[in-house]
Design a protein that fits this description.
Elements lengths: L1 E4 L10 E5 L4 E6 L6 H5 L14 E3 L5 H4 L2 H6 L5 E4 L1 H20 L8 H7 L3 E3 L6 E3 L2 E7 L7 E7 L2 E5 L22 E5 L10 H18 L2 E5 L5 H14 L8 E4 L1 H12 L6 H9 L9 E3 L3 H6 L7 E5 L9 H8 L6 E4 L8 H6 L4 E4 L2 E4 L3 E4 L9 H11 L5 E5 L3 H15 L3 E2 L6 E3 L1
Parallel strand pairs: 3-4, 4-5, 5-6, 10-11, 11-20, 12-15, 12-16, 13-14, 13-15, 16-19, 20-21
Antiparallel strand pairs: 1-2, 1-22, 2-3, 7-8, 8-9, 9-10, 17-18
Amino acid sequence: MKLSFHGATGEVTGACYLLETKESKILIDCGLFQGSRECEELNYESFRFDPSTIELLIVSHGHLDHIGRIPKLIAHGFRGKILSTAPTRDLAELILEDAFNLHKREGERPLYSRADLEKTFQHWEVISYATQIHHNDIEFTLHDAGHIIGSAVIEIKSEGKKILYTGDLGNMPSTLLPPPPLFKNANYLIIESTYGNRKHESPEERVLKLERAVEDVAARSGTLMIPSFATERTQDILFLLNEMLHEKRIPEIPVFVDSPLAIKITGVFEKYVSFYKEEVKNLYREHPNLFRFKKLRLTESVEESKAINNVRPPKVIVAGSGMLSGGRILHHAKRYLSDPHSILLIIGFQAAGSLGRRLIEGERIVKIHGEEVAVQAEIRKINGFSAHADNQQLYAFVENLHEALVRIFIVHGEEAQALHFASEIQDRLGTPAIVPKLGEGFEI
């Protein structure tokens, strides 16, 4: 078999891996490169393989950095099946449509046409967790990864070997989702390393920091801005705010979800309650409004979004994008970053070069929509809300498997994180761990 790497190598976006056996060519994920302009230019390069020869695409989950180039595959001749869980398909339909429309609005060069986008879902089929699927000389199974709803660890068996691809591994305990199962006896492992050299706060600490941010902004009569990814992070925040309000731990102030995509995705979360962990399922049976509360406002239209400015502080605004690389959060940041009473609360990974990363690193004057903004608002960060496993969780996953492992491939992490994690694995476990380069292939 041959395994080659066509994205998320030494960086956290663009996941795409090709597995070739004697009888099959299958692709695992086909995501968008995101972050700096240089990184995004990679989306326009030709695939290093012929998409028309790929028979099957297995999708680990619905984030854009794992699905964003799928319609481009169609545009370049892919005619095989696309397989994922049902929530992943539903999320992909919303997220790819949103990305296509955003490219059009911003006048970006199109990666594919609307016809390619529509054809994508004619090829897409859904499968359940723990169901063995056979394709020529390959057998594969999806298992819950605990990352976002419908996310999967992909287990592949062929030629007497077992390969595990973690996709994005969940940060446990998750607010909503159950943990991944324990895996044993894999020969090859492809594992993410987004937080390969970092440790998250405890669940209690991350909740307390969110609670404190709401309390502090209410006391200051400021605006709490939470740039949030539309999938999982927004729903986690809404769930926890609802819980805090129910327990009277925070004051009742207006909360705006200013993201049409996040609002639609919350509908997907309400549709697939069976994917939640048991305690959340039980709570849902008693209180079906897990993500809705009295002073919550969902602002879909541009007019509703602009009207948020007319609401006097204190208030909370949850808006995309999560790395402040676009979306409505930029309009709020432009207005409120210069307000010393306000707080910008970063709750997710910020790629190198992104506005979110630069703000965390202390940049005091930033450019938004061509205008300079002096940063006087307080910048806070909570690592614990990441949907990615941290260093300790990643290491524990590997340690549980290491006796049978022949080789580990470290992907989906910036170079420093990936190299640190590879070195730690080799030093402590003695298992060869490789950080592949873009386009690099390996016989396995």
